[in-house]
Amino acid sequence: MSFKKTPSLTAATLLLALAVAPAVPQAARAAESLASCRAIGDATQRLACYDGLAAAAANAPAVPAATANAAPAAPAMPEDPTARFGKEKLPRTEEQQAKDDAEQDEEMHSTVASAVALPYRLFAVTLANGQTWVSKEALTFDPKPGDEVRVMHGLFGSYSMVVGRSRPAKATRVS
To answer: I need a labelling partner for 55 at 20 to 30 A (CA). Which of 47, 69, 165, 171 fits?
Structure first.
């Protein structure tokens, strides 16, 4: 088996072609490079071509083609810390759960936007920040719009809610 240079495309010429043609989308260039390597008849030269492509890919900056050609994105608005309070009880992915648990506050303050009376002096309380909490225990005072609300972490993943002058009552976030 001889290892002579052939005038066919080699890894070096492929790398040069990749660097010179920035107007061609990255995916199309990669497909062309793989196709040209696949067309090489000699197994050793074909392997050298694939190795050259792998080395070039490892050394290239990791910029997706979609973001390279896209306009700069608008800065993301930071999420209100009270908006995610109690959110760990809502359905979500494991990745979201780990992120939310790391950023969780110990206590949240808001005001009552509306309240709906349920049987046995339980209430569904909608807060000014849009969250809805349902008491699991009877409240000593009826919540009224504008009343201060404090929701705190309890034991074993529970929550306690204080509405106005009422005593703390166990509560669950429903939205």
So the answer is: 69
